[in-house]
Write a structure and sequence with these properties.
The complex is a heterodimer of chains A (247) and B (378).
Chain A (H helix, E strand, L loop, with lengths): L25 H15 L5 E5 L14 E4 L5 H11 L4 E7 H7 L1 H10 L4 E6 L2 E2 L5 E2 L18 H4 L5 H5 L5 E8 L3 H19 L4 E7 L3 H4 L3 H15 L3 E5 L2
Parallel strand pairs in A: 1-2, 1-3, 3-4, 4-8, 7-8
Antiparallel strand pairs in A: 5-6, 7-9
Helix pairs in contact in A: 1-7, 3-4
Chain B lengths: L6 H14 L11 E4 H11 L4 E4 L6 H13 L3 E4 L3 H13 L4 E5 L1 H16 L4 E7 L15 H5 L11 E2 L4 H18 L2 E7 H5 L1 E4 L26 E2 L8 H19 L3 E4 L6 E4 L2 H16 L4 E6 L1 E3 L3 H7 L5 E6 L5 H9 L5 E5 L8 H13 L1
Parallel strand pairs in B: 2-3, 2-4, 4-5, 5-7, 6-7, 11-12, 11-14, 14-15
Antiparallel strand pairs in B: 1-8, 6-13, 10-12
Helix pairs in contact in B: 2-3, 2-7, 4-5, 10-13, 11-12
Chain lengths: 247, 378
Protein backbone atom coordinates (compact mmCIF):
# COMPACT_ATOMS: atom_id res chain seq x y z
CA UNK A 1 0.00 0.00 0.00
CA UNK A 2 1.27 3.45 -0.87
CA UNK A 3 2.23 5.60 2.11
CA UNK A 4 -0.07 8.57 1.95
CA UNK A 5 1.31 10.47 4.96
CA UNK A 6 1.78 14.09 3.99
CA UNK A 7 2.00 15.70 7.42
CA UNK A 8 3.46 14.29 10.59
CA UNK A 9 5.28 15.27 13.74
CA UNK A 10 8.97 15.94 13.01
CA UNK A 11 11.36 13.67 14.90
CA UNK A 12 12.93 16.79 16.39
CA UNK A 13 9.70 17.64 18.23
CA UNK A 14 8.60 15.66 21.25
CA UNK A 15 5.09 14.23 21.29
CA UNK A 16 3.81 16.46 24.08
CA UNK A 17 1.31 19.29 24.28
CA UNK A 18 2.86 22.76 24.68
CA UNK A 19 1.85 25.36 27.24
CA UNK A 20 1.61 28.12 24.64
CA UNK A 21 -1.58 30.20 24.35
CA UNK A 22 -3.94 29.88 21.38
CA UNK A 23 -2.60 31.95 18.48
CA UNK A 24 0.92 32.19 19.91
CA UNK A 25 3.70 31.92 17.33
CA UNK A 26 6.06 29.77 19.40
CA UNK A 27 4.38 26.49 18.42
CA UNK A 28 4.76 27.32 14.73
CA UNK A 29 8.34 28.51 15.20
CA UNK A 30 9.25 25.33 17.13
CA UNK A 31 7.75 23.21 14.37
CA UNK A 32 9.58 25.03 11.58
CA UNK A 33 12.91 24.63 13.37
CA UNK A 34 12.20 20.95 14.03
CA UNK A 35 11.26 20.34 10.39
CA UNK A 36 14.41 22.03 9.15
CA UNK A 37 16.64 20.13 11.58
CA UNK A 38 15.05 16.86 10.42
CA UNK A 39 15.40 17.81 6.79
CA UNK A 40 19.07 18.71 7.18
CA UNK A 41 19.72 15.53 9.16
CA UNK A 42 21.43 17.35 12.03
CA UNK A 43 19.22 16.38 14.99
CA UNK A 44 21.94 14.25 16.57
CA UNK A 45 24.55 17.02 16.51
CA UNK A 46 22.37 19.98 17.39
CA UNK A 47 22.33 21.81 20.72
CA UNK A 48 19.64 24.42 21.26
CA UNK A 49 19.72 27.26 23.76
CA UNK A 50 16.38 28.24 25.27
CA UNK A 51 15.78 31.81 26.44
CA UNK A 52 14.14 33.27 29.49
CA UNK A 53 10.58 34.11 28.55
CA UNK A 54 7.63 32.06 27.35
CA UNK A 55 9.94 29.76 25.37
CA UNK A 56 12.02 28.89 28.43
CA UNK A 57 10.35 25.48 28.34
CA UNK A 58 11.43 24.84 24.74
CA UNK A 59 13.65 22.09 26.13
CA UNK A 60 10.51 20.14 26.99
CA UNK A 61 9.35 20.30 23.38
CA UNK A 62 12.45 19.81 21.24
CA UNK A 63 13.76 16.30 20.84
CA UNK A 64 17.47 17.13 20.95
CA UNK A 65 19.91 18.51 23.53
CA UNK A 66 18.88 21.88 24.92
CA UNK A 67 20.27 24.11 27.63
CA UNK A 68 18.74 26.94 29.56
CA UNK A 69 20.53 30.27 29.61
CA UNK A 70 20.22 33.36 31.79
CA UNK A 71 18.06 36.18 30.40
CA UNK A 72 19.73 37.64 27.32
CA UNK A 73 22.85 35.49 27.47
CA UNK A 74 22.19 32.79 24.85
CA UNK A 75 24.60 34.28 22.27
CA UNK A 76 27.41 34.14 24.86
CA UNK A 77 26.49 30.58 25.84
CA UNK A 78 26.37 29.68 22.14
CA UNK A 79 29.79 31.26 21.63
CA UNK A 80 31.29 29.13 24.40
CA UNK A 81 29.73 26.02 22.89
CA UNK A 82 30.57 26.62 19.24
CA UNK A 83 34.18 27.54 19.97
CA UNK A 84 34.89 24.36 21.93
CA UNK A 85 32.88 21.99 19.67
CA UNK A 86 32.79 23.58 16.20
CA UNK A 87 31.37 20.41 14.66
CA UNK A 88 28.11 20.81 16.58
CA UNK A 89 25.18 22.84 15.29
CA UNK A 90 24.41 25.49 17.90
CA UNK A 91 21.35 27.68 17.76
CA UNK A 92 19.71 30.13 20.10
CA UNK A 93 15.98 30.70 20.35
CA UNK A 94 15.24 34.11 21.82
CA UNK A 95 12.41 36.54 22.26
CA UNK A 96 12.50 40.31 21.87
CA UNK A 97 13.10 41.04 25.55
CA UNK A 98 15.85 38.45 25.75
CA UNK A 99 17.64 39.30 22.52
CA UNK A 100 16.94 42.99 21.97
CA UNK A 101 16.78 44.41 25.52
CA UNK A 102 18.78 42.69 28.23
CA UNK A 103 20.89 40.68 25.79
CA UNK A 104 21.54 43.25 23.09
CA UNK A 105 25.26 43.47 23.95
CA UNK A 106 25.69 39.70 23.69
CA UNK A 107 23.74 39.75 20.40
CA UNK A 108 25.77 42.51 18.80
CA UNK A 109 29.13 41.13 19.87
CA UNK A 110 28.39 37.53 18.89
CA UNK A 111 27.29 38.91 15.51
CA UNK A 112 30.31 41.16 15.19
CA UNK A 113 32.72 38.37 16.08
CA UNK A 114 31.07 36.40 13.33
CA UNK A 115 30.24 33.47 15.59
CA UNK A 116 29.19 30.57 13.38
CA UNK A 117 25.85 30.13 15.11
CA UNK A 118 22.20 30.39 14.15
CA UNK A 119 19.89 32.76 15.99
CA UNK A 120 16.11 32.47 15.83
CA UNK A 121 14.61 35.72 17.07
CA UNK A 122 10.90 35.60 17.85
CA UNK A 123 9.54 39.15 17.84
CA UNK A 124 6.04 39.60 19.20
CA UNK A 125 6.63 43.10 20.54
CA UNK A 126 5.81 42.25 24.13
CA UNK A 127 6.99 40.46 27.27
CA UNK A 128 4.56 37.55 27.38
CA UNK A 129 5.94 35.54 30.30
CA UNK A 130 5.90 38.41 32.78
CA UNK A 131 2.47 39.73 31.88
CA UNK A 132 2.55 41.92 28.80
CA UNK A 133 5.12 44.65 29.43
CA UNK A 134 6.65 46.85 26.76
CA UNK A 135 9.45 45.31 24.68
CA UNK A 136 12.16 47.07 22.67
CA UNK A 137 10.14 46.11 19.58
CA UNK A 138 6.74 47.32 20.83
CA UNK A 139 5.13 49.55 18.21
CA UNK A 140 4.51 53.29 18.67
CA UNK A 141 1.12 53.82 20.36
CA UNK A 142 0.89 50.15 21.35
CA UNK A 143 -0.55 49.83 24.85
CA UNK A 144 1.15 47.46 27.26
CA UNK A 145 1.25 46.94 31.03
CA UNK A 146 4.18 49.37 31.26
CA UNK A 147 3.10 51.74 28.50
CA UNK A 148 -0.59 52.08 29.41
CA UNK A 149 -1.01 55.20 27.29
CA UNK A 150 0.80 53.65 24.37
CA UNK A 151 4.50 53.66 23.53
CA UNK A 152 5.57 57.16 22.63
CA UNK A 153 8.48 58.16 20.42
CA UNK A 154 9.35 60.94 22.88
CA UNK A 155 9.40 58.83 26.00
CA UNK A 156 10.36 55.29 24.99
CA UNK A 157 11.87 55.83 21.56
CA UNK A 158 10.93 53.94 18.43
CA UNK A 159 10.85 50.13 18.13
CA UNK A 160 14.31 48.64 17.72
CA UNK A 161 14.97 47.16 14.29
CA UNK A 162 17.40 44.38 15.11
CA UNK A 163 17.89 43.03 11.57
CA UNK A 164 18.68 46.46 10.13
CA UNK A 165 21.06 47.10 13.00
CA UNK A 166 22.99 43.83 12.59
CA UNK A 167 23.09 43.64 8.80
CA UNK A 168 25.88 46.23 8.36
CA UNK A 169 28.20 44.29 10.69
CA UNK A 170 30.87 42.43 8.75
CA UNK A 171 30.54 39.49 11.11
CA UNK A 172 27.03 38.66 9.95
CA UNK A 173 26.48 36.36 6.96
CA UNK A 174 22.72 36.13 6.79
CA UNK A 175 19.91 38.28 8.18
CA UNK A 176 16.27 37.69 7.26
CA UNK A 177 12.85 38.59 8.61
CA UNK A 178 9.76 36.44 8.20
CA UNK A 179 6.28 36.45 9.71
CA UNK A 180 4.17 33.69 11.22
CA UNK A 181 0.77 35.13 10.35
CA UNK A 182 -0.27 33.24 7.21
CA UNK A 183 0.75 30.10 5.29
CA UNK A 184 2.63 31.92 2.53
CA UNK A 185 4.71 33.85 5.07
CA UNK A 186 5.23 30.78 7.22
CA UNK A 187 6.60 28.82 4.24
CA UNK A 188 8.89 31.74 3.42
CA UNK A 189 10.05 31.84 7.06
CA UNK A 190 10.83 28.14 6.85
CA UNK A 191 13.15 28.84 3.90
CA UNK A 192 14.95 31.52 5.89
CA UNK A 193 15.37 29.20 8.88
CA UNK A 194 16.69 26.46 6.64
CA UNK A 195 19.22 28.82 5.08
CA UNK A 196 20.31 30.03 8.51
CA UNK A 197 21.07 26.43 9.59
CA UNK A 198 22.62 25.56 6.23
CA UNK A 199 25.00 28.50 6.65
CA UNK A 200 26.24 27.02 9.89
CA UNK A 201 26.64 23.56 8.37
CA UNK A 202 28.67 25.13 5.59
CA UNK A 203 30.79 27.14 7.99
CA UNK A 204 29.42 30.60 7.26
CA UNK A 205 29.27 33.22 9.94
CA UNK A 206 26.48 34.59 12.14
CA UNK A 207 22.98 33.96 10.76
CA UNK A 208 19.82 35.42 12.26
CA UNK A 209 16.18 34.97 11.34
CA UNK A 210 13.61 37.25 12.92
CA UNK A 211 10.09 35.87 13.08
CA UNK A 212 7.23 38.34 13.55
CA UNK A 213 4.89 36.54 15.86
CA UNK A 214 1.65 37.18 17.73
CA UNK A 215 0.84 37.34 21.42
CA UNK A 216 -3.00 37.41 21.37
CA UNK A 217 -3.13 37.16 25.17
CA UNK A 218 -1.23 40.37 25.81
CA UNK A 219 -2.19 42.11 22.61
CA UNK A 220 -5.70 41.64 24.00
CA UNK A 221 -6.92 40.43 20.60
CA UNK A 222 -8.34 37.19 19.23
CA UNK A 223 -5.87 34.98 17.37
CA UNK A 224 -7.57 35.96 14.09
CA UNK A 225 -7.33 39.68 14.81
CA UNK A 226 -3.73 39.18 15.92
CA UNK A 227 -2.82 37.77 12.50
CA UNK A 228 -4.52 40.76 10.90
CA UNK A 229 -2.54 43.09 13.17
CA UNK A 230 0.72 41.50 12.01
CA UNK A 231 -0.26 42.18 8.39
CA UNK A 232 -1.59 45.69 8.91
CA UNK A 233 0.60 47.13 11.66
CA UNK A 234 3.64 44.99 12.43
CA UNK A 235 4.94 44.21 8.95
CA UNK A 236 4.83 47.88 7.82
CA UNK A 237 7.16 48.62 10.76
CA UNK A 238 9.33 45.54 10.23
CA UNK A 239 9.60 44.85 6.48
CA UNK A 240 9.88 41.19 5.51
CA UNK A 241 12.57 39.61 3.37
CA UNK A 242 16.22 38.65 3.24
CA UNK A 243 18.06 41.71 4.46
CA UNK A 244 21.55 40.33 4.02
CA UNK A 245 22.85 37.23 2.32
CA UNK A 246 26.60 37.01 1.89
CA UNK A 247 26.63 33.86 -0.24
CA UNK B 1 64.16 38.47 45.06
CA UNK B 2 61.99 40.90 43.20
CA UNK B 3 58.45 40.62 44.45
CA UNK B 4 56.84 43.65 42.91
CA UNK B 5 55.79 43.21 39.35
CA UNK B 6 58.45 44.71 37.15
CA UNK B 7 57.20 45.16 33.67
CA UNK B 8 60.47 44.74 31.87
CA UNK B 9 61.22 41.50 33.69
CA UNK B 10 57.67 40.33 33.10
CA UNK B 11 57.91 40.96 29.42
CA UNK B 12 61.33 39.38 29.18
CA UNK B 13 59.87 36.29 30.78
CA UNK B 14 56.93 36.35 28.42
CA UNK B 15 59.26 36.70 25.50
CA UNK B 16 61.25 33.71 26.65
CA UNK B 17 58.08 31.72 27.12
CA UNK B 18 56.76 32.31 23.66
CA UNK B 19 60.12 32.28 21.91
CA UNK B 20 61.54 29.12 23.35
CA UNK B 21 58.39 27.50 24.61
CA UNK B 22 59.89 26.90 28.02
CA UNK B 23 56.53 26.16 29.54
CA UNK B 24 55.16 23.04 28.01
CA UNK B 25 52.07 21.44 29.35
CA UNK B 26 53.99 18.90 31.37
CA UNK B 27 55.05 19.47 34.94
CA UNK B 28 58.17 21.60 35.21
CA UNK B 29 60.97 20.22 37.33
CA UNK B 30 62.80 23.51 37.76
CA UNK B 31 61.02 26.42 39.41
CA UNK B 32 60.40 29.41 37.20
CA UNK B 33 59.95 33.02 38.26
CA UNK B 34 56.44 34.08 37.43
CA UNK B 35 53.72 36.36 38.81
CA UNK B 36 50.61 35.04 40.55
CA UNK B 37 48.24 35.85 37.73
CA UNK B 38 50.43 34.01 35.22
CA UNK B 39 50.94 31.09 37.58
CA UNK B 40 47.17 30.58 37.74
CA UNK B 41 47.00 30.72 33.96
CA UNK B 42 49.78 28.20 33.42
CA UNK B 43 48.40 25.87 36.09
CA UNK B 44 44.97 26.06 34.44
CA UNK B 45 46.48 25.11 31.11
CA UNK B 46 48.32 22.21 32.68
CA UNK B 47 45.13 21.18 34.48
CA UNK B 48 43.44 20.77 31.11
CA UNK B 49 41.51 24.02 30.86
CA UNK B 50 40.41 24.04 27.22
CA UNK B 51 38.62 27.37 27.17
CA UNK B 52 39.28 30.71 28.83
CA UNK B 53 37.02 33.74 28.55
CA UNK B 54 37.96 37.05 30.11
CA UNK B 55 37.44 40.77 30.19
CA UNK B 56 40.10 43.32 31.17
CA UNK B 57 40.17 44.60 34.73
CA UNK B 58 43.05 45.51 37.00
CA UNK B 59 44.75 43.85 38.91
CA UNK B 60 44.22 40.55 37.04
CA UNK B 61 45.18 41.64 33.53
CA UNK B 62 48.36 39.54 33.42
CA UNK B 63 46.19 36.44 33.58
CA UNK B 64 44.04 37.43 30.60
CA UNK B 65 47.13 38.44 28.62
CA UNK B 66 48.87 35.19 29.53
CA UNK B 67 45.90 33.14 28.35
CA UNK B 68 45.64 35.22 25.18
CA UNK B 69 49.19 34.21 24.33
CA UNK B 70 49.26 30.64 25.62
CA UNK B 71 45.82 29.18 24.84
CA UNK B 72 46.15 29.53 21.06
CA UNK B 73 49.65 28.03 21.29
CA UNK B 74 48.03 24.95 22.76
CA UNK B 75 45.25 24.98 20.17
CA UNK B 76 42.73 25.94 22.84
CA UNK B 77 40.04 28.60 23.04
CA UNK B 78 40.65 32.17 24.18
CA UNK B 79 38.09 34.93 23.79
CA UNK B 80 38.18 38.45 25.13
CA UNK B 81 34.48 38.86 25.79
CA UNK B 82 32.43 42.04 25.57
CA UNK B 83 31.70 41.98 29.30
CA UNK B 84 32.06 39.88 32.43
CA UNK B 85 28.45 38.80 31.90
CA UNK B 86 29.33 37.40 28.50
CA UNK B 87 32.53 35.77 29.78
CA UNK B 88 30.84 33.80 32.54
CA UNK B 89 28.10 32.71 30.13
CA UNK B 90 30.70 31.57 27.60
CA UNK B 91 32.13 29.48 30.42
CA UNK B 92 28.59 28.17 30.98
CA UNK B 93 28.34 27.11 27.34
CA UNK B 94 31.74 25.41 27.26
CA UNK B 95 31.07 23.67 30.56
CA UNK B 96 27.67 22.38 29.40
CA UNK B 97 29.56 20.58 26.65
CA UNK B 98 31.84 18.96 29.23
CA UNK B 99 34.94 21.08 28.71
CA UNK B 100 37.09 22.46 31.51
CA UNK B 101 36.62 26.22 31.32
CA UNK B 102 37.73 29.24 33.32
CA UNK B 103 37.21 32.96 33.62
CA UNK B 104 38.91 35.52 35.80
CA UNK B 105 38.27 39.03 36.95
CA UNK B 106 38.58 41.36 39.89
CA UNK B 107 35.98 42.50 42.40
CA UNK B 108 33.64 44.74 40.34
CA UNK B 109 33.82 42.25 37.50
CA UNK B 110 33.10 39.36 39.84
CA UNK B 111 29.95 41.18 40.97
CA UNK B 112 28.83 41.11 37.34
CA UNK B 113 29.59 37.41 37.08
CA UNK B 114 27.37 36.53 40.03
CA UNK B 115 24.31 35.96 37.85
CA UNK B 116 26.23 33.42 35.81
CA UNK B 117 27.75 31.77 38.88
CA UNK B 118 24.27 31.30 40.32
CA UNK B 119 23.14 29.66 37.06
CA UNK B 120 26.24 27.44 36.99
CA UNK B 121 25.45 26.34 40.54
CA UNK B 122 21.77 25.80 39.75
CA UNK B 123 22.57 23.88 36.57
CA UNK B 124 25.31 21.84 38.35
CA UNK B 125 28.00 22.90 35.90
CA UNK B 126 31.69 22.80 36.83
CA UNK B 127 33.71 25.97 36.26
CA UNK B 128 36.66 27.82 37.72
CA UNK B 129 36.32 31.53 38.48
CA UNK B 130 39.31 33.55 39.63
CA UNK B 131 38.89 36.73 41.67
CA UNK B 132 42.11 38.72 42.04
CA UNK B 133 40.33 41.09 44.32
CA UNK B 134 40.76 44.83 44.76
CA UNK B 135 39.41 47.52 47.03
CA UNK B 136 35.70 48.32 47.10
CA UNK B 137 32.83 49.01 47.33
CA UNK B 138 31.99 50.38 43.90
CA UNK B 139 35.00 51.15 41.80
CA UNK B 140 37.07 51.31 45.00
CA UNK B 141 40.64 51.22 43.82
CA UNK B 142 43.02 48.79 42.20
CA UNK B 143 44.93 47.93 45.36
CA UNK B 144 44.79 44.53 47.05
CA UNK B 145 41.85 43.82 49.36
CA UNK B 146 40.04 40.97 51.05
CA UNK B 147 36.65 42.63 51.17
CA UNK B 148 35.00 40.12 48.81
CA UNK B 149 35.03 37.39 51.46
CA UNK B 150 31.30 37.60 52.16
CA UNK B 151 30.44 37.56 48.46
CA UNK B 152 32.76 34.63 47.78
CA UNK B 153 31.80 32.43 50.71
CA UNK B 154 28.03 33.02 50.81
CA UNK B 155 27.35 32.04 47.23
CA UNK B 156 27.46 35.60 45.96
CA UNK B 157 24.52 35.47 43.58
CA UNK B 158 20.85 34.76 44.20
CA UNK B 159 19.62 31.46 45.56
CA UNK B 160 20.58 28.91 48.18
CA UNK B 161 24.00 27.76 47.03
CA UNK B 162 27.64 27.77 48.00
CA UNK B 163 30.81 27.45 45.98
CA UNK B 164 34.14 26.11 47.18
CA UNK B 165 36.54 29.05 47.65
CA UNK B 166 40.29 28.44 47.53
CA UNK B 167 42.75 31.01 48.86
CA UNK B 168 46.46 30.57 48.29
CA UNK B 169 49.06 32.56 50.24
CA UNK B 170 51.89 32.43 47.73
CA UNK B 171 52.36 32.32 43.99
CA UNK B 172 53.21 28.63 44.33
CA UNK B 173 50.03 27.97 46.23
CA UNK B 174 47.93 29.87 43.69
CA UNK B 175 49.21 27.40 41.11
CA UNK B 176 48.52 24.46 43.42
CA UNK B 177 44.94 25.48 44.21
CA UNK B 178 44.27 26.02 40.51
CA UNK B 179 44.85 22.32 39.87
CA UNK B 180 42.65 21.53 42.85
CA UNK B 181 39.92 23.92 41.68
CA UNK B 182 39.41 22.07 38.40
CA UNK B 183 39.24 18.71 40.15
CA UNK B 184 36.77 19.93 42.77
CA UNK B 185 34.63 21.56 40.10
CA UNK B 186 34.39 18.32 38.14
CA UNK B 187 34.01 16.07 41.16
CA UNK B 188 31.14 18.04 42.67
CA UNK B 189 29.72 19.61 39.51
CA UNK B 190 30.02 23.08 40.95
CA UNK B 191 31.64 26.40 40.16
CA UNK B 192 34.80 26.85 42.24
CA UNK B 193 36.28 30.22 43.16
CA UNK B 194 39.95 31.04 43.53
CA UNK B 195 40.24 34.12 45.73
CA UNK B 196 43.49 36.03 45.50
CA UNK B 197 44.27 39.71 45.76
CA UNK B 198 46.16 42.34 43.82
CA UNK B 199 49.46 41.64 45.58
CA UNK B 200 49.38 37.87 45.09
CA UNK B 201 48.32 38.35 41.50
CA UNK B 202 51.16 40.68 40.64
CA UNK B 203 54.09 39.61 42.76
CA UNK B 204 56.63 37.19 41.31
CA UNK B 205 57.93 34.12 43.05
CA UNK B 206 59.51 30.87 41.91
CA UNK B 207 56.88 28.29 41.02
CA UNK B 208 56.93 24.60 40.23
CA UNK B 209 53.88 23.23 38.50
CA UNK B 210 53.14 20.17 40.52
CA UNK B 211 50.45 18.01 39.02
CA UNK B 212 48.37 16.44 41.74
CA UNK B 213 47.79 12.72 41.84
CA UNK B 214 45.11 11.88 39.29
CA UNK B 215 41.76 11.57 41.00
CA UNK B 216 38.95 9.28 40.01
CA UNK B 217 36.36 11.51 38.44
CA UNK B 218 32.96 10.23 37.42
CA UNK B 219 32.46 10.19 33.67
CA UNK B 220 30.43 13.22 32.62
CA UNK B 221 27.21 11.49 31.66
CA UNK B 222 25.25 14.73 31.71
CA UNK B 223 26.98 16.78 29.04
CA UNK B 224 25.27 18.13 25.97
CA UNK B 225 26.75 17.43 22.57
CA UNK B 226 24.14 15.94 20.29
CA UNK B 227 21.51 13.32 21.18
CA UNK B 228 23.10 10.57 19.13
CA UNK B 229 21.86 7.14 20.14
CA UNK B 230 20.50 8.43 23.43
CA UNK B 231 17.55 10.45 24.68
CA UNK B 232 18.00 14.23 24.58
CA UNK B 233 19.55 15.90 27.60
CA UNK B 234 18.67 19.18 29.23
CA UNK B 235 20.80 21.52 31.32
CA UNK B 236 18.57 23.71 33.45
CA UNK B 237 17.98 25.33 36.81
CA UNK B 238 14.25 25.91 36.34
CA UNK B 239 12.01 23.64 38.39
CA UNK B 240 8.35 24.64 38.26
CA UNK B 241 6.51 21.57 39.57
CA UNK B 242 5.37 21.40 43.16
CA UNK B 243 8.28 20.24 45.29
CA UNK B 244 10.62 20.02 42.32
CA UNK B 245 12.84 22.96 43.25
CA UNK B 246 12.97 21.85 46.87
CA UNK B 247 14.11 18.41 45.76
CA UNK B 248 16.78 20.00 43.55
CA UNK B 249 17.98 22.21 46.40
CA UNK B 250 18.09 19.25 48.78
CA UNK B 251 20.34 17.48 46.29
CA UNK B 252 22.63 20.53 46.17
CA UNK B 253 22.64 20.82 49.97
CA UNK B 254 23.61 17.16 50.31
CA UNK B 255 26.51 17.82 47.96
CA UNK B 256 27.55 20.85 50.03
CA UNK B 257 27.44 18.67 53.14
CA UNK B 258 29.87 16.23 51.54
CA UNK B 259 32.14 19.09 50.46
CA UNK B 260 32.12 20.43 54.04
CA UNK B 261 33.02 16.98 55.30
CA UNK B 262 35.77 16.13 52.85
CA UNK B 263 37.31 19.20 51.33
CA UNK B 264 38.42 21.45 54.19
CA UNK B 265 41.99 22.58 53.84
CA UNK B 266 43.97 24.71 56.28
CA UNK B 267 47.37 25.21 57.84
CA UNK B 268 48.29 25.64 61.48
CA UNK B 269 51.56 27.34 62.41
CA UNK B 270 52.84 27.20 65.99
CA UNK B 271 49.35 26.81 67.37
CA UNK B 272 50.03 23.85 69.71
CA UNK B 273 50.89 25.95 72.77
CA UNK B 274 49.60 29.27 71.46
CA UNK B 275 47.49 31.40 73.78
CA UNK B 276 46.69 33.88 71.06
CA UNK B 277 45.89 32.44 67.65
CA UNK B 278 45.88 34.76 64.68
CA UNK B 279 43.57 33.75 61.87
CA UNK B 280 44.39 35.03 58.41
CA UNK B 281 44.29 33.90 54.79
CA UNK B 282 46.01 34.84 51.56
CA UNK B 283 48.73 37.46 51.60
CA UNK B 284 47.67 38.59 55.09
CA UNK B 285 48.63 35.17 56.42
CA UNK B 286 52.16 35.71 55.11
CA UNK B 287 52.40 38.93 57.10
CA UNK B 288 50.94 37.32 60.21
CA UNK B 289 53.45 34.49 59.99
CA UNK B 290 56.20 37.04 60.31
CA UNK B 291 54.41 38.67 63.23
CA UNK B 292 54.19 35.27 64.94
CA UNK B 293 57.93 34.72 64.45
CA UNK B 294 58.75 38.16 65.85
CA UNK B 295 56.51 37.71 68.88
CA UNK B 296 57.74 34.17 69.55
CA UNK B 297 61.28 35.56 69.65
CA UNK B 298 60.12 37.67 72.60
CA UNK B 299 58.57 34.64 74.27
CA UNK B 300 54.94 35.34 73.46
CA UNK B 301 52.84 32.25 72.81
CA UNK B 302 51.30 33.25 69.51
CA UNK B 303 50.28 31.05 66.59
CA UNK B 304 48.70 31.37 63.17
CA UNK B 305 45.78 29.49 61.74
CA UNK B 306 45.37 29.82 57.98
CA UNK B 307 42.23 28.66 56.15
CA UNK B 308 43.01 27.59 52.58
CA UNK B 309 39.40 26.72 51.83
CA UNK B 310 37.36 29.77 52.87
CA UNK B 311 34.29 27.72 52.07
CA UNK B 312 34.10 25.12 53.42
CA UNK B 313 35.51 27.08 56.38
CA UNK B 314 37.67 25.01 58.76
CA UNK B 315 35.26 25.56 61.63
CA UNK B 316 35.92 22.21 63.33
CA UNK B 317 39.68 22.86 63.44
CA UNK B 318 39.08 26.25 65.05
CA UNK B 319 36.69 24.67 67.53
CA UNK B 320 39.45 22.18 68.42
CA UNK B 321 41.92 25.03 68.95
CA UNK B 322 39.50 26.52 71.49
CA UNK B 323 40.61 23.79 73.89
CA UNK B 324 44.18 25.13 74.11
CA UNK B 325 43.99 28.77 73.04
CA UNK B 326 42.85 31.73 75.09
CA UNK B 327 41.75 34.03 72.33
CA UNK B 328 41.69 34.58 68.60
CA UNK B 329 42.60 37.50 66.38
CA UNK B 330 41.26 37.67 62.87
CA UNK B 331 43.42 39.79 60.57
CA UNK B 332 42.02 40.79 57.21
CA UNK B 333 42.34 43.43 54.51
CA UNK B 334 38.72 44.34 55.16
CA UNK B 335 36.72 45.76 58.03
CA UNK B 336 35.76 42.36 59.33
CA UNK B 337 34.29 39.60 57.19
CA UNK B 338 36.05 36.30 57.90
CA UNK B 339 35.93 37.25 61.57
CA UNK B 340 32.23 36.31 61.44
CA UNK B 341 33.15 32.74 60.50
CA UNK B 342 35.79 32.64 63.22
CA UNK B 343 33.18 33.78 65.76
CA UNK B 344 30.71 31.16 64.53
CA UNK B 345 33.39 28.48 64.90
CA UNK B 346 34.46 29.70 68.35
CA UNK B 347 30.80 29.89 69.30
CA UNK B 348 31.26 32.27 72.21
CA UNK B 349 33.80 30.10 74.04
CA UNK B 350 36.66 32.59 73.70
CA UNK B 351 37.09 36.24 72.79
CA UNK B 352 37.62 36.91 69.09
CA UNK B 353 39.38 40.16 68.22
CA UNK B 354 39.72 41.81 64.86
CA UNK B 355 42.33 43.88 63.09
CA UNK B 356 42.11 45.06 59.50
CA UNK B 357 41.96 47.86 57.00
CA UNK B 358 39.81 48.74 54.06
CA UNK B 359 41.66 51.03 51.75
CA UNK B 360 42.84 48.62 49.11
CA UNK B 361 46.30 48.80 50.65
CA UNK B 362 48.32 45.94 52.02
CA UNK B 363 48.66 45.79 55.80
CA UNK B 364 52.19 46.01 57.12
CA UNK B 365 53.92 43.59 59.46
CA UNK B 366 54.66 46.57 61.70
CA UNK B 367 51.07 47.65 62.21
CA UNK B 368 49.78 44.10 62.73
CA UNK B 369 52.58 43.46 65.21
CA UNK B 370 51.91 46.68 67.08
CA UNK B 371 48.21 45.85 67.43
CA UNK B 372 48.99 42.28 68.49
CA UNK B 373 51.52 43.40 71.12
CA UNK B 374 48.96 45.82 72.57
CA UNK B 375 46.41 43.03 72.63
CA UNK B 376 48.81 40.71 74.45
CA UNK B 377 49.65 43.31 77.07
CA UNK B 378 46.04 44.36 77.57
Amino acid sequence: MKDSTIYQRPESLQDVPTHYCPGCGHGTAHRLIAEVIDELGIRERTVGIAPVGCAVLAYDYFNFDVTEAAHGRPPAVATGMKRVRPELIIFTYQGDGDLAAIGIAETIHAANRGEKITVIFVNNGIYGMTGGQMAPTTLIDQKTATSPLGRSFQNEGPPLKVCEMLAPLDGTAYIARGALNKPANILKAREYIKQAFLNQIEGRRFSLVELLSACPTYWHLTPGDSMKKITEEVIPNFPLGVIKDER
Amino acid sequence: MLFRSNNSILWLLKFRISKFNILKTEATTEPILICGNEAIGEAAIQAGCLAYFGYPITPQNELTAYMAARMPEEGRVFIQSESELAAINMVFGASALGVRAMTSSSSPGISLKQEGISYLAGCELPAVIVNISRGGPGLGNIGPAQSDYFQATRGGGHGDYRTPVLAGASVQELADVTFLAFDLADRYRTPVLILGDGILGQMMEPVKFIHPEPVDLEPKDWILGGAKGRPPRVVKSLFLGTGALDAHNRKLQERYRIIREKEVRCEAYMTDDAELIMVAYGITARLCREVVRNLRRDGHKVGLFRPITLWPFPSLKIAELCRTAKRFLSVEMSYGQMVDDVRLAVNGKLPVEFFGNGGGEILTVGEIEEYTRELISS
